[in-house]
Amino acid sequence: MSTAVSTSISKLTEYNYRTWVVEAKDLLKHLNVWRIVDGSEIVPVPPAAPAASGSSSMMAPDPLDPEYDFKPESQDSAYLNRFDNFLRDWRTYKNNYEKANGTICSLLEPSIRSRYTAEKYDDPKVLWDTIKTDFEKAIKLDARYQMAKLAACKLESYSSVTEWITAQEKGVEELLIDIGTCR
Description:
Elements: H1 17-30, H2 34-37, H3 77-106, H4 110-113, H5 124-152, H6 161-182
Helix pairs in contact: 3-5, 5-6
């Protein structure tokens, strides 16, 4: 996949979350990893072994564990086929999981990235959700500021009614952006 798409996306700074979140989400969708970030695609689960070989003791694999070694629990051909499909799906999931996390991290300015170095942020969903929570708190404060700014916008402060209306429209537009991002 070409990396040329990401070159037009600014890295996340303290001041550009509103545009960054839209562009980053679009890029993650383009890379086919957004479903991992939003949690709608989950870790594939190994198939259950046929009843004759006992119950399956395998649990859902940890996509972060490079040492996890999958071994089939039965030699039944139908089971082996399901197991091969599971391994293919799991490898794809693991690659996409790492691609999603790496992409998000690469779109953060170093000062922002340094906030998200704990091991829990190796999970792209946790990383994305935490960034969203952290930055949307600031946007809500921005929305309150925009409301106060609109309330303080007095006609007497402008040289014409047209100039005052333009200022009001700009303030409403900025407020709608702030409110819309927080939903």
